[in-house]
Predict the 3D structure of the following.
Amino acid sequence: MNPEDLFYHSLSRVLHTVITNREAWPFREPVDGDVIPNYYEVVKEPMCLYVMRDRVQNREYKSLEEVEVDFKLLVNNSETFNGPKSGFTQMAYGLWKLFRKAVGQKMGQSLHEPDESKVFMFPPPPKWKKTVNDSGDTTQVNGPSTVNGVH
């Protein structure tokens, strides 16, 4: 397989992993403006997983970084429209992590900017941070993030 074919084959596998994830359903297809009428007033550059998949199939991406930019846009759109604490945005954060992991596993590469604090407008909080107090006991500082709400 030549390098270009390998790139698109691997990228297709990465997106398949993300698209088939049970948390991906709100992000697979373009938002229906009839169902959510103000979406396109708020989100000026919409992005969804099926558009990304089509761009892979049509060989429109020339680098992993271009795919990464579209994926960041998908997450940032959720942050903008739904807010950072929305269940949908929490799902988008999880998909980003899945995307990052799949790129490593299926492409043997790392993302250009894997640090969520530099990627997202509202980086997700750490799921768990534990500290040891003076008595040697472990205490929970931050609990796990929750997923609730609807798109």
In short: Residues 128-151 have pLDDT under 50 and may be disordered. The CA atoms of residues 14 and 105 lie 9 Å apart. The domain at 3-124 is CATH 1.20.920.10 (Histone Acetyltransferase; Chain A).
